[in-house]
Amino acid sequence: MGAGTGAGAGTGTGTRSRNRNRNKEQEQKQEHEQEQQQEQEQEQEEERKWEQEQEWEWEEEQKWEHEREQEQEQKLEQE
Predict the structure, then answer these.
(1) Backbone dihedral angles phi then psi of residue 42, each to the nearest 5 degrees
(2) Looking at the predicted structure, is the pLDDT value of residue 1 above 70?
(3) What's the total number of domains in the chain?
(4) 59 in a domain, yes or no?
(5) Where is the composition biased (Gly residues) (predicted)?
């Protein structure tokens, strides 16, 4: 009876150990997926910022061109 209990306890410990390892693997997998998701979100955020900057630069350029055109028109009118 003692040997049976010992073997059973050993098996139980092995199962617990495997479950613990499986849980650890699952946690690591989830952490990895979360890190990947955070990286993706960060890249998307940086891309949005870059696009916004491009848009602002374009708008500034348009304003600048418009002002330059107005100045040229005024010069022509004065001449």
Answers:
(1) -65, -45
(2) no
(3) 1
(4) yes
(5) 1-13
Classify residue 24: in a domain, yes or no.
no
Identify the residue whose tokens are 């059973």.
8
For 2-15, how does the pLDDT look when each residue is reduced to its tens digit (9 = 90+)? 555 555 555 556 77
Range of the domain at 68: 50-78
Q: Which two tokens stand for residue 71?
A: 């100045």
Biggest CA–CA distance in the chain, Å, is 116
Reduced 3-state DSSP string for the chain: CHHHHHHHHHHHHHHHHHHHHHHHHHHHHHHHHHHHHHHHHHHHHHHHHHHHHHHHHHHHHHHHHHHHHHHHHHHHHHC
Angle at CA of residue 74, ends 68 and 79, nearest 5°: 130
Residue 70, domain member (yes or no): yes
> What is the tens place of the pLDDT at every residue in 18-43?
888 888 999 999 999 999 999 999 99
